[in-house]
Structure formats: C-alpha cells, structure tokens
Amino acid sequence: MALYNFKKIMVVPTAKDFIDLTLSKTQRKTPTVVHKHYQIHRIRHFYMRKVKFTQQNYHDRLSQILTDFPKLDDIHPFYADLMNVLYDKDHYKLALGQINIAKNLIDNVAKDYVRLMKYGDSLYRCKQLKRAALGRMCTILKRQKQSLEYLEQVRQHLSRLPTIDPNTRTLLLCGYPNVGKSSFINKVTRADVEVQPYAFTTKSLFVGHMDYKYLRWQVVDTPGILDHPLEERNTIEMQAITALAHLRSAVLYVMDVSEQCGHTLSQQLELFNNIRPLFANKPLIVMANKCDVRKISELSEENQKVFADLTAEGVTVIETSALTDEGVMQVKTEACDRLLTHRVDTKMKSKKVHDVLNRLHLAVPAKRDQKERPPFIPEGALIRRKAMETDTPKRKLERDLEVELGEDYTLDLQKYWDLMNPEEKEDKIPEIWEGHNIADYVDPEIMKRLEELEQEEELREKAGEYDSEEESEDEEMKEIRQLASQIREKRKLKILASKEKDKQGPRIPRTAKKVERATLEKEMGDLGLDMTDKDDSHYAQRSRSLVRKRKREVSAPPTSRTRSQSASRPPRDQSGVRDAKMLKKVKTMMKSSQKDMNRQGRKGESDRHVFDLKPKHLLSGKRKSGTTSRR
Amino acid sequence: MRIEKCYFCSAPVYPGHGMMFVRNDCKSFRFCRSKCHRNFKKKRNPRKTRWTKAFRKSAGKELTLDNALEFEKRRNIPVKYNRELWSKTMVAMKKVEVIKTKRQARFIINRLKKGKELEKAADISEVKKNIHLIKAPHAGQAKQLEDKMVQKLAEDVHMDE
C-alpha cells in the first residue's frame, strides 16, 4: 500500500547534481576512445551510443521519481488530504507534471539527434551533434530546478510522517491547545510527545500505540484547534481537522475544566459545537481534564449546567487528570469498548458480513428431557478451592525447612518414601558389588531359585562333571612328546640354516663340494652313531688330488748360428741408436709424439672415435653473442 | 548408579567412563573406550569381531544357556526397598557368582579337550615320520651288528673247516 512507501522514495537530486551525475556516468560507462581514421559507421555508433545512454539515464531516473511519489488519487483520502494540507495538492501535481514533460522532451531530443547522426559524415560533425544533444538535454533539466527542489523537500517531509493506519482502531484526541492532549497520550501509550506550557507545542500529528483486550490501538494526538471558520485555519490546525474528518475513530474531546489553557469553558464549548459535525458516526467522549486542579463539582452553576446538558444529550463526560492518572483508565476502557461495538455494528450493516454470517452456525444440543443437569465440581476441587481462599498453609513445605535450617539443609527425598517397614527409610542402599548391579538380582523369589540352583549343582557334582581328569599319561607318552618337540626344534633349525644359504648364481653341486671329515663325524655323532676309530674307513683315505706332479728336466741349448744370433739380439728400443745421447733424444721424441694423443684421450693414431657428437653446451640455449656457424 | 554394558565388547562401563551415543531413533549406545566407539563408527558387526564377548557367545566359545546366568537380568519394574530382601539378595548373589564361574570354566575346559587329543595324535605321527632327524635308525646297533657279522664269519670259517 502507498502508506508504507513514503519512506522508500528515492532521493531527488538537485538539478545541478542530476546533470553532473548523468554526464559523468555517461563518460564512465561508454567507450571513450575514438579516432578520425575509424570507419564512419563506427564513429557514428560511438556517438549515438553516448546520446542514447544519456537519454536512458535521464529517462530512468525521472520515471523512478514519478512512480515513487504517491499519486494523490490512489492513496487513502486521509493521506491525500493530509498531503494537500501540508504540500498543496496543486503545486505537487504541477511539479510532477513538469518532471513528466521534461522526461518526454529529453526523449524527443535524443530521438531527433540520433536520427541526424545517421547522416554525419565526419568525426567532427558527429561530435558536434552529440554535444548539441547532450547540451539540450541538460538545459531541459536545468529548467526543472525548482520542481526538483520542491519534490526533494516533499520527500523528506513525507518520510517523516507518522505511519497512521486509517483502517485500524484509533482514538483521536482533539481540543484547544494546552488542554492536556499530549499528556494524555504520553500516559496511555509509550509515545513521548513534547509537553510545554505554550500553545501549539504539538505542531503535527503524533501516533502512539497501546494494547487493550489483546488488540493494538492507535492513539493520535493532534495539534490544538482554535475557533475560527474553516477557511481561516492554518496548516497546523488543518492537519487536526483532516485527521478528524477522515479517520474512523473514537473521538476524545479534551476540555480544560480549570481554564489554565487560557480559554474559558464557554469558548471551549463553542468550539465543540462548531466541530460537532465532524463527530458524526464516531463514538464521542468528552474528557474533563485537569480535574486535579478543579473538579466539575467545584465549578459555577452555569458551567455545571453545561456539563449536565452534555450528559443529557447522551455524550459521556468523564473527569480525568493526566497528572494524577485519575479517570485515565476509565476513559481508555470506555472509548475502546464503544469503538469496538461501533465497528462491529458497521461491519454488521455492511454487505460483506452476510457472506460470513451465512457460513456460521452455532450448534446447540437439543434438550432430551426436562432433567436439570448442572455443572459437576468434584469434592476435592471444592475443598482445595476453599483451602486456597482461607490462605493458611496446611503442611510444612521443603522450602520452609530450607529457609529454617539455612546452611545445614540437605535435600533428603528418602524420607518421603512409601515402604513396607517405615523404619528402613534411612537405610543406605547398596547398588554395586564386584562389577554387578544389585538391582539386577533383586527378586522376591530369589531364595527359591537359589535353592533350585544349588540342588542342580549338587546333582552335577555327583554325576562327576567337575572331576578334574588327571593327565593319565604314561612314561611312553611323555617320551614321545619330548621327542616330538625335539624333532620340531631340529626341523626349524634346519629350515633356518637353509634360508641363510646364499643361493644366487650358479651353484656347485653337492657332490663336487669337499666334505670335511670333522663335520661328517660330528653330524653322525649327533645322530647317535659311534664315530670313533674310523681312520680305516673309506672317507678317511687320502685322495688323488694330494699327489704331487713330477719335475721336468732342464732342456738343451740351441746349436745353429741363427739360433745363437737370435739369442743375443738387442732390444728394439736400442737397435739403430748410436749412443746414450741419441737414445735420450729418441726417447723424448717418442714421448712428445704421444703427448698429443694422450691429451685427447686417444688410444693411438688410428683412434678417430668422437665420444660426444652433439655436445649439449654448444647446441642448446638462446642465440646470444657468438657465432652459430656450428649449429 | 549402574554399571552398564559396552554395546560393542560387552565390558562393564563404570560411571564416569566411556562414551554414550544417542541415535536419531532414540536408541542409545554406550562404549567402554574409544576402541569400541571407533569400531562402531566403522560399522563393524560386534558379532563378527573376534575379540568381543558377542562373538564368543554367538560362536559357542562361551557358556550361553544356563540357569546361573538367568539371575542377573535387567528388570523393568523395580522392587520396593526391603532390608531383609536386600540382604538375602546379597547373600544369594555371592553364591550364584561362585556357581556361575565354576560352570563357565568347566564349559571352556570341555571345549578344549578335543584339542588335547589332536595334539597327542600329532605328536605320535611326528615321531613316527621324522625320528631320523634326531636319531639314526641303527644308532646303538652298529657295534652289535659288527659283532654279529664277526660271529657269523667265524661260524662260516668254522663250517668250512
């Protein structure tokens, strides 16, 4: 509903701000770079985009303003009237109208210039067109400065209006200024309205909420109304009048009996009669406020008559004092009740009620016979009720005991137990024994069952179930066991020994291995055989491998000359060498010729093997300084 | 105060020990230590986990059906305290405990009897088959055989003569 959107109206920027905002947005959100040498369609598109973007922004923002501000025809007449009073309906509508016109003008401008841009044939022309378009849009907006300012002020004021729901239960306070309306609202609700001795302290409507009969009630405080004709009323008073006119509420007309407000009782009565027409169809209560200062009974005769007249007409008059709270509650309840009944009545008279009424049906059981059947209250309930009324505590409570004993008090619920032998109440009950819960064994028939069990046990013992069988193992069995364990041990050792052998690679067959005499004799001895005196046995004889070879004789020397020459031939590195000096030189020559080859790691002259055909350090990496002739 | 049973291994859970887990279907599980709790979380079946009492009972390794075991039973209706009854119960409890342990021990002994016989037979067969690993077949007989041979030769020679 429009009621709640008053706070959600977007901020209306000033004309200058608006223009700055939009233009900077255009600059930021559209591309900025364009050059002469671009293709013409691209240039055109660039500038058209800017124009359209600006137009779009203005359009959006202005439309938003137009939709946010409430239409005076669409909202509740109370608010419409209130806004009229505060802001002048005509001015308001005019401002919004101007905005609308501005929006349309901007749209037209943009349309025109975009159309023109299609025929722009150079960057300069398009740019000028864009400048013109944007300039025109901005001037349109500059002319709306006044409207925008006005709307901003309206918006700010509107968001601060109190949320009065025109349809819910309301109590409306009215009367002269300074009679005590604001004090009353402060008393009845949580509102905190300013209360001051000068007139027109309350300058606008204030709302407070209170609860009564589980319902929410609005209490509306109005500024004071003076007694002039409607045309001469100022804005502040008009607000009160508007509220009176449109809100369907209970009216509380507040009168100052003590005349402290500065107006006599007759003046107040005048006002009352003047605005009486506004009270039509509304439950009315007259509050004679400030009765702590002067009561009605203390008034003069004629003034009392005034009040008597009022009561005679059927108007309820209640004496109240906002200071001492006298009569405040009474007024509240009276007003609320009357308003509720009034509302129910109006609802009943309206057309929609029949829809609901048709569907409601109260079922009442039909009387079967003439027998009286009053409600039944059991004896105990009656007694208890009586006990409640006499107000004497019948028994001593734990709490009382606790208070009495103070620090010594311990909560002992065992004393309330209901046992067969009451003297056992203070027993400490065992719960656990040796890992068993005693509660699991407790059974009234346990002794009987135990007897049966014991009998059974006796029978079993007699039958010999529990006789421990002796290990009737004779010597033989024992020996067998021992031997078996020895066998197992020996076997395990053998397995271990075989695992330790290193069986990788070719193995010497067992028969080629030499068996030591000592180990053989030891093994056979362990097995129980007698291995003494075995020097004559076949394995103790010496084998052929120990026999030595016969010695060769020295051979005869050779006889022929060639043989003798060959015997005395000089070694190769000395043949053809004259003397030691030459020998030395020859040796150095040999060494130096070998040096090169040794350095290059070559075996000899014929070794042309290249170890690294493609060395990595020459063929990898970037082409920095140096040649790449060898790549 | 009660000593509860661990859900997984059936060990006693004393007050102040272990953990309790309550499932969404309102069934509560108590565990004596985190070992059981962790096994439970791994969704292991206590009836298949060999070290638990549940396995032992379901696999017939321990006494399950016996009158002595019926004495300790969780009762749903508590009995009102009665000094005499409680003292009698304490006495009975001790006696029942004795009988119960005796019977349980006997059960296990009977179960293990078969094993002893199998052991005996295994030993006998072992000795029969592999006696050669510790004792040569004719260990003490070499000398005897030799003497016999000598005697026989002497007899033959004597015959020839």
Mean pLDDT of chain A: 86
Count every helix of chain A, treating DSSP H or I runs of 4 or more residues as helices: 21
Q: What profile does the largest beta sheet of chain B have?
A: 2 strands, antiparallel
Low-pLDDT ranges of chain A = none
Strand order of the largest sheet of chain B: 1-2
Strand and helix map with partners:
The complex is a heterodimer of chains A (631) and B (161).
Chain A: H1 2-5, H2 15-29, H3 40-68, H4 77-87, H5 89-117, H6 123-143, H7 145-159, E1 170-175, H8 181-188, E2 206-212, E3 215-221, H9 235-246, E4 250-256, H10 265-275, E5 284-289, H11 301-313, E6 316-319, H12 328-349, H13 353-359, H14 379-390, H15 398-405, E7 432-433, E8 436-437, H16 446-463, H17 475-500, H18 517-526, H19 561-567, H20 580-599, H21 616-619
Parallel strand pairs in A: 1-3, 1-4, 4-5, 5-6
Antiparallel strand pairs in A: 2-3, 7-8
Helix pairs in contact in A: 2-3, 2-6, 3-5, 3-6, 4-5, 4-9, 5-6, 5-7
Chain B: E1 4-5, E2 12-13, E3 19-22, E4 28-31, H1 34-41, H2 53-58, H3 83-130, H4 142-160
Antiparallel strand pairs in B: 1-2, 3-4
Condensed summary:
The complex is a heterodimer of chains A (631) and B (161). Chain A is 48% helix and 6% strand.
Describe this structure as you would to a colleague:
The complex is a heterodimer of chains A (631) and B (161). Chain A contains 21 helices and 8 strands. The mean pLDDT of chain A is 86. In chain A, strand 5, helix 11 and strand 6 form a beta-alpha-beta unit. In chain A, helix 3 (40-68) packs parallel to helix 6. Chain A has a 6-stranded mixed beta sheet with strand order 2-3-1-4-5-6, with helices on both faces. Chain A has a two-stranded antiparallel sheet with strand order 7-8. The radius of gyration of chain A is 63 Å and the shape is flat. Chain A has helices at 2-5, 15-29, 40-68, 77-87, 89-117, 123-143, 145-159, 181-188, 235-246, 265-275, 301-313, 328-349, 353-359, 379-390, 398-405, 446-463, 475-500, 517-526, 561-567, 580-599, 616-619; strands spanning 170-175, 206-212, 215-221, 250-256, 284-289, 316-319, 432-433, 436-437. With 631 residues, chain A is an alpha/beta fold. By secondary structure, chain B is mainly α. Chain B has helices spanning 34-41, 53-58, 83-130, 142-160; strands at residues 4-5, 12-13, 19-22, 28-31. Chain B has a two-stranded antiparallel ribbon with strand order 1-2. A two-stranded antiparallel ribbon of chain B has the order 3-4. In chain B, a hairpin with a 5-residue loop joins strand 3 and strand 4. Chain B starts with a strand and ends with a helix. The model of chain B has no long low-confidence stretch (mean pLDDT 92). At the A-B interface, strand 7, strand 8, helix 16 and helix 17 of A face helix 3 of B.
